[in-house]
Input
Amino acid sequence: MRFSLKNQIVVITGGGGFLGGKHAEAIAEIEGIPILIDIDEESAKAKAKSIEEEYGSAALGYKVDITSTEEIETLADDLLKRFDKIDVLINNAAMNPQMDYKTEKEETRLENFSLERWNDEVSVGLTGAFICSKIIGPHMAKRGKGVILNIASDLGLIAPDQRIYRKKNLSDDKQPVKPVTYTVVKHGLIGLTRYLATYWCDKGVRVNALCPGGIYNNQPEDFVEKLTNLIPLGRMANPDDYKGAIQFMCSDASIYMTGSIVVIDGGRTCW
Output
């Protein structure tokens, strides 16, 4: 029963995306009600519909810009009117475009990285989590119970190994790299986790972070080979490999855990 989320309302940012959809499935599997919010309304609603059909669980999809305080306030008001509570918030949304291995992407390099792109990606990945926590967290604190789970990354603990992105026959100044924003945002989410965990520690609100590693998602074979060479278990994660962690961290199975950073990366950060 500790792993049950029966009838609990779970808001998932970036719910229409690849990983957000998997989080929603994990919630539905233990009888929670996933609320998928995404800037892409079609994706959020389509995923919610598929969850209802597959799991027989209620699920809702909303178009919401998490960088907008007004839109998050409107969402919270709507959910509180409909359900009278919000039990869990999963801050999952991030701008993490797939690396393009067919074209030169020198604009990802630090020297060329635009301030506009920096602001956009930090706004979604970090500021969005702050806004959602700021607005939804107090409702949890008022009830004396709630969970906030921030989805960070193994790159919230280490820097990216840029060698795995290198392309042959390109000079150093044209080599694609993992953008600076991704690591900064994920490190920032860990800081936000620890701050919120102590801020609401006397209000029954638990706040933790999950640091997943890379997931198989049709990446080029040479990239997969380079990355798996950095992972002690010798493979990337399968899409369902994080479901158990999500269920544990969102439910009362983790009742005595707050301010924790859970790393599930196949051992990559051990090396």
Q: What stands out?
A: The longest strand covers residues 205-212. The two ends are 37 Å apart (CA to CA). DSSP finds seven helices and seven strands in the chain. The helical segments are 18-29, 41-55, 69-83, 115-143, 180-199, 221-228, 243-250.
